[in-house]
Amino acid sequence: MTRIKICGIAEPLGFDSVVAAGVDWLGFVFFPASPRAVTPGQAAALSARHAGGPGRVGLFVDPVDADIEAALAALPLDVLQIHASAARAAAIRERFGVPVWRAIGVASRADLPSAREPVDGVLIDAKAPKGATRPGGNAATFDWSLLDGWRAPLPWLLAGGLTPDNVATAIRATGAPAVDLSSGVESAPGVKDPALIATFVAAVRATGRAQVTGAIG
Known about the structure:
Elements lengths: L2 E4 L5 H10 L3 E5 L10 H8 L7 E7 L3 H10 L4 E5 L2 H11 L3 E7 L14 E6 L29 E3 L8 H8 L3 E4 L4 E3 L2 E2 L1 H13 L11
Parallel strand pairs: 1-2, 1-8, 2-3, 3-4, 4-5, 5-6, 6-7
Antiparallel strand pairs: 9-10
């Protein structure tokens, strides 16, 4: 089945709702410019609300090692989602020994990775619009037809403007083995809506198995 990550968990109701919905991963944003940003201590307190359940993903934008060290000292993270160059993402993976997904903004087919990188997966997102203050989480989709015929060189997730209304179409169009969203299930920036979460998860599950190989671990 297509796997699900819901990112930007910043408050207890959102955390509890994502756990109850049975998603595969939940994400904590360690990037101060985001309206969904949390501190390592806040993320640890949220994570402690439920042992087990979804994998915990920490999102970082051009981090220094100290940023990641602080998060890992506060709570276990199953994956580091890195907005940085391929070389920097690979160095972080080597330094911390935690699986790394590198986020890649896409505006044209040339932006898609064509060769395997020394990371564990890639997140294919819409390239941030001009003037944006953050590289992702901008509620923007991209042209999914850019993925026609693309052979993913490593496991991947689809992101970028996904909502309960468009995710089934996105999966059918791209064959994405996993999907990631944040603002698409919010009632306000940083405030997750339990009903929207449930609707989104149901829409994904209803699409059945992913149409292409490349499931992310």
